[in-house]
Amino acid sequence: MNELFGSINKFFEFIVPIADFLWDFPTNYAWYANIPILGKFTFAILLLVGSGIYLTFKTGFVQCTRFSKGVRILMEKKASDTGVSPLAAFLLSSAMRVGPGNIMGVTGAISVGGPGAVFWMWVSAFFGMATAFAEAVLAQIFKEKEEDEFVGGLPFYGKKIYGDKRWVGVLLSWIFIIYALFSIPGQTFHMFTALGSVADTMAGTTFDRQSVVYYAIAIFLIISVAVTVFGGLRRVTAVTDLLVPLMAVIYTGIILILIIINFPLIPYFFKAVFAGAFTPEAIFGGAFGVALSQGIKRGLMSNEAGQGTITMAAAVADNDHPCEQGFVQSLGVFLDTIVICTMTAFMVVMAHVWTGEAGVAWETIRSAKLTVYLTSIQHLVPGTSMDAAVKMIVSLCYALFAFTTLIGLILFAEISGNFISRGKSFITGIRAAGALFFVPFGALTVLAGLELGNLWYISDFVNIMVVYANVPILILGSGIIMKTLDHYNRTNGARFVSQEIGIETEYWKAGTASKVK
């Protein structure tokens, strides 16, 4: 078995340099890397940040002016015969956004760029909220009805924006399906890491990957994922409706308790963040550009604004106006980065383990993100009696983050696949590939004690392809987005009809309103 996995990993060696080159371009050229500040930013990051700034000004800072409206939409109790409620779609998108990266990524950004990276993470999230609004509006405008559900997202609006060419949508669909499926084994690994940590803590020992405990985790994971995704959109949303608020409340609750307990350290947090944003400490490289690039990259990679990966969730909601889901999805970026990621940042910065106060040598752990995070929490927990309980709670939240991301990947691959074919066998095939092949494959690699780095690079490679495809679409479609926002402002959110802004769509025609319950 190990030889088979090794062969698979070796086969995908060619992906690694390609993915690295595309994500690092043009910082991998000395002439560019030597440019002060700018040389720290890759083209992908500049593209994402630039589009966020452009859309922020073009929409008149919609993330600020319509923030409260988004909150009110989420609080409305709305259900319909077709699609899901705006809240259910929001929680579904949050299932993807709020993942292990909210812990691992933020910890890594601070470990490399220092506390100042948190400030730039906030900045990127602010502009990313406008990007999330824009892509959600396009997803809503060009969504299509499939029996009692909606389908839509990047492939659907990409086809329309690029001259109504079907091959464009098919290409975008396959790119996203490949990205989603090859991201599943990585999330499976995170699940094992988290649940294994819980088992170790409870037993007071470290279990081997060949132990009965790990096999039990594998069986539980495969069955739970299969039962969830084969139930379709409504079953997945039922699960995310339960788990996303649960994990968010538990995680933020335990972190808030630790923040209150360590109240005297709060001024240190803000001082370290704001000072480090412009004058980072030497231990983190001492360069302003490092903190800047790390913070912006983490903010964008965590909330996924502009990557097109959340647009499938935006499309499945039933709204009276496309802008409504845009306001809601903008809040998703706020929840993910400004709230959840900041909770993680509080723990790491307040503990400041790099000074040696946590009793560990910083250089020996700084590359191990989970170790840095758990060490930080351990340092902030009063006494030792609560250490095990807090560690277990955080690990369980980490596991829930990974699980909801995992089922979200499979569902979004399915929604994307609807553009290629709506045949039952094709859609079932996507579900089966995710739940019955890629999840077990990820489980088997863990049980075999392997981490197939080359294989996981495929998701990085395809993700950058989605970024390069999606952002230009948002810019090209900004005229439609602005006309739609103007229609909302003029009519105070009256039922949207696409012909009123001069375009034809499949769903937004006169007389297509769903029966609201």
Automatic annotation (TrEMBL):
It is a multi-pass membrane protein. Keywords: Cell membrane, Membrane, Symport, Transmembrane, Transmembrane helix, Transport. The chain crosses the membrane at residues 31-57, 78-99, 119-138, 167-192, 212-230, 242-266, 272-292, 333-354, 392-413, 425-449, 461-482. Pfam families: Na_Ala_symp (PF01235). Signal peptide: none annotated. One of its GO terms (cellular component) is plasma membrane. The keyword Cell membrane applies. It is found in: Cell membrane. The keyword Chaperone does not apply. One of its GO terms (molecular function) is amino acid:sodium symporter activity. It comes from the Bacteria. Belongs to the alanine or glycine:cation symporter (AGCS) (TC 2.A.25) family. This is Alanine or glycine:cation symporter, AGCS family. It comes from Geosporobacter subterraneus DSM 17957.
